[in-house]
Amino acid sequence: MSILGFTWYYIVLFLFVLTVLVYVHEWGHYWVARRNNVRVDVFSIGFGPEIFGWTNKAGTRWKIGAIPLGGYVKMLGQSDLPEDGEEEKPLTPEEKAVSFQYKTLAQRSAIVAAGPIANFLLAIVLFSGLIMFVGAARPYAGVGNIMPGSAAEEAGFIPGDRIISAEGEPVKWFTDLVRIVSAKPEVTMNFLVRRGDKDLTIAATPKKHRQQNSEGETVEIGLLGIRFDPKQAEFERQDPLTATWMGVKQTAAFTKSIFSFLGKLISGEGNSKDLGGPLRIAQISGQMAQEGFGSLIFFMAALSVNLGLINLFPIPVLDGGHLLFFGAEAILGRPLSDRAQEYGFRIGLILVLILMVFASWNDLIHLRVFEFLKELVT
C-alpha cells in the first residue's frame, strides 16, 4: 500500500462499483426509452474514445469508453446543448416516429426520470438482499451506558453485561427487555446476566416514570436506566416481504439524511470538507471490501441513493435540469427557447464542474496528497 493508502485493489473495486451504478442508471433511461419506441443510438459506459463495443439489432451501439467515470445514453432527437447557427438535418416521418423530441411531454419526462428511479430501485434491492441473506443489525439486550442514579447503577449493572432473562422470561433483544421492564415500575425483578464467561443474578427495581402513550394518555412505566451500545447487535434475517419493506425504509432514511446534510451545508452548520469525490469513493470502496462483501454491497446501495438523488437536482445538464425544463414547458404550453436552454445548460455545466473540482480538492486534502508530494521534493 502506498503512502496515500491506495492499491490497485482499491482502483479495481472503485471501477466495479461505479460501473454497476452507472450501468443501472443508464439502463433505466434505455429501458423506458425503448418502451416508448424511442431509437437509442448509443449506450456508453465511460466517455472518450471507444475501446470496445458492438451494435445490436435495434441499431444501438453498446460501447465502453476509455474514461470510466460515468456514462450516457444518446437517443435520436436528444440534444443537451443546442448550438447557435447549427442546422440540423430534417428528420423523415419514420425518424420522427422514433425521435425523443417528438414524444409527448409525459413520455420524455418518464424517460429522463427513469435513470434516477433505477438507482433508487437498485438501492432497495441491495438493502433488501442484505437484510434477507445477511440480516439486519438488531441490538441485543446488552448494557451499553448506564444513567447516573438509575436503578441499573444502584443494582450493580456494568457496561458490557448481557441480560439473558428477566424474572425467568428469556430475553434476547433490547426491545424485549424494554417491554418487560416497562410493565413493572417499582417492582423488584431478578435478572440473569452474562458478564464475561460467567452468569450471575442481579436484583433491580425499575424506577417509576410518567410518559404519554401513542393515544396521548399519561401512563407509568418502569425504567432501568440503561442504553444499548450500537456495537451490541446481532444480525437477524428477515423474510422477503419484510426485507423489501425494510429496504424501502432504509433507502428513504438515506435520502432523508442526504437532505439533512445538504440543509446543514446551506445553512452553514455543516462542514463542506465532508464532500468527497472519486478518490474518496475509491478509498471507501476498498475499506468496505476489506470489512466484507456485505459492507461493500451496503456501500454500493448507499452510493446508489446518492447518485439517484444528485441526478434529480434541478441543475441543467443533470436529469433534474431536464425535468425542470419539462415543468416549464408544461406551464408555458411550449418548450423553452433554444437560447434559454443553451444558457441553462452552460450554467449547469459550470456548476457541476465547480462541484467536481471542489470535491476532488477535498479528496487531495483528505488523502494528504500535497504532504506526500512535498516530502518527495524535500
What are the defining features of this structure?
alpha+beta, disordered N terminus, 378 residues, 4-stranded antiparallel sheet, Pdz3 Domain, two-stranded antiparallel sheet, disordered C terminus
Strand fraction equals 15-25%
Distance between the termini: 22 Å
Element order: H for helix, E for strand:
HEEHHEEHEEHEEEEEEHHHHHH
Could you name the ranges where pLDDT drops below 50 across 5 or more consecutive residues? Answer: 1-5, 81-87, 369-377
Q: Count the helices. How many?
A: 11
Radius of gyration: 28 Å
Structural class: alpha+beta
Q: Averaged pLDDT, please? A: 83
Number of strands: 12
Strand order of the largest sheet: 6-5-7-8
Largest sheet, in brief, is: 4 strands, antiparallel
Portion of residues in helices?
40-55%
Shape: elongated
Q: Total domains, how many? A: 2
Protein architecture, described:
The chain folds into two domains: 8-135 and 237-377, no CATH class; 138-235, Pdz3 Domain (Roll), CATH 2.30.42. Strand 7 and strand 8 form a beta hairpin. The model is unreliable at 1-5, 81-87 and 369-377 (pLDDT under 50). It has 378 residues and is of the alpha+beta class. Helix 1 crosses helix 7 (278-291). It is built from eleven helices and twelve strands. The protein is 50% helix and 20% strand.
